[in-house]
Amino acid sequence: MKIHEYQSKQLFSEYGIPIPRGGVAETPESAKAVAETLGGFPAAVKAQIHAGGRGKGGGVKIANNTEEVVRHAEDIIGMNLVTHQTGPAGQPVKRVLIEKGLNIAKELYLSLMADRESAGIMIMASEAGGMDIETVAAETPEKIIKVSVNPLTGIYPYHCRKVAFGLGLDKELIKSFSRMLTSLYRLFVDRDCSLVEINPLVITEDRELCALDAKINFDDNALYRQKEVAEMRDLDEEDSLDVEASKYNLNYINLDGTVGNMVNGAGLAMAVMDTIKLAGAEPANFLDVGGGATAEMIENGFRIILSDKKVKAILINIFGGILRCDVLAKGVVEAAKNTQIDVPLVVRMEGTNVEEGRRILAESGLDLQTAGDLRDAGQKVAALVAA
Amino acid sequence: MSIFVNADTRVVVQGITGREGQFHARQCIEYGTKIVAGSTPGKGGQKMDEVPVFDSVEKAVAETEANCSLIFVPPPFAADAIMEAADAGVDLIVAITEGIPVLDMMRVKHYLNTKTPRLIGPNCPGIITPGAAKVGIMPGPIHKPGGPIGVVSRSGTLTYEVVYQLTRQGIGQTTCIGIGGDPVNGTNFIDCLEAFEKDPETKGMVMVGEIGGSAEEQAAEYIKQNVSKPVVSFIAGMTAPPGRRMGHAGAIISGGAGTAQGKVEALKACGVHVCEDLGRIGEFCAKVF
Known about the structure:
heterodimer; A: D-amino Acid Aminotransferase, Chain A, domain 1; Dna Ligase, domain 1; Rossmann fold; 3 domains; 6-stranded antiparallel β-sheet; 4-stranded antiparallel β-sheet; 13 helices; about 35% helix; about 25% strand; elongated; B: alpha/beta; 7-stranded mixed β-sheet
């Protein structure tokens, strides 16, 4: 789960991690009120959306007085911001973060992330602050400092020193940097983060550290024990169909093609998308209804797929095994009737009583074809959307 | 004849009194697996069908000589269950549970480094040596006993599809292992490939991977250096969009890394036979093996 920059900075604040002076505003009037508390200019007015690349898209502007803050707020709030991460449709901006400018002496990069290789929390830092870290990693990997922390022991001063020395910080800054890094680590563990990123982390001319930007992602699996975090979710930032699917506990991702598909199991669902593509068509979605695949899940799956108007045909692939295909077939027929399905359907199922299942499908009166195997299924559905 | 589990494997099921645990314990028993005990705190002394239930894994091991634990405990309590099993002295822990917080699994992983048991999973279908023992949730009848192929995969139903096609081609399996779809797991591809390489009955291997992480790339390098038997591989997610978690917590392309294309290239470069069409992986294997 992702949150906004201003929410990330609120969390930073709770943990004593320095952030610029400022506040969030949903209207130009409240932007004015925030501007009057800054105690000086220039100030940055920053669009609050989850996607990156806001500056280039015109979502970050500099103001030299309160009037300019209000004007920028008027321009940005309500705009449809298009960045390389939002896609061409863009994302409407609901609020701005207004922050007092800093006298920047140096910009650094700092992040913590859950690292699968070391099964630890990986601290990454670089002197190339403000740049895209993936570009730095590709072009000058030697400029990135990496330190993995064992979650059983937690962070120790030597971890911090190692990062600080790597960044070439002097003795005085090492102290404040270590304090900040330790707090970030605590935040990461307390709140079940998967990523905490500060880019750039600024050293001011007064030799103080300050998080100019802030990005936090959370582990979805841990949200059950992070109620406060879960409340920060902004559903407007997510695809409406994805949100709808998550209410039914379905794993759904909307894509650009025309073949709706429903599969039990994530790996098989990906492979079915690939099969559709190999057969010459494009998948309209990823949808995993879970390894078990009950009739109720299938009905919900139909509802989600059918609300996507791009869909011209649907492929269902259920590898039951333990599930009985006759029960499954009845579920598919029932679900199709309940949802008044209006596009052709190809069903491939495997498991106990598969012949009986196919008979039930054939006699259902639905616009439906059964497929003998996966390849057959892909070809049949591709032929349907090509017609 | 097999790796990690065989006809002598004695299983304690953690969470045997829950809905999932009960259903799958019965399925395992029906397959012929020696389910010798169950464990649910507070339900010691009860029975699930004929299986005695104990308050702790330690007691179950002491009373029944169980040497393997199969875990169906819900995510909030799963890390606890895995560490309890490790302390109770079983040799193998198979964790089916999906949705364990990654920080919990990182701690478990480091904890297990100080212990002897092998962990398979979590978020996996388990392990089966066809005809001998099924320790997991996979459908038994799609498998064909007697080898000669070992199967290892990050996925559940995708593995069933592959195994089903092998069986339809008349190709049996020595052992099939699902290592799980989480970013932090126990046994990895290389552990399984190494064991299959040493197993005299296994004549070839199928490795089923997917997007995310670099386990397939590392396995490719390992195969090139250490595996003499033929390896077939399939990688799911050629059409997966970057930056989106594809169902499995570990299945995500991030920062351009972990793509299916990258994995396929790495595997091919190391002499692995990569099948790009899941619909014909059975025929593909029949040609290679």
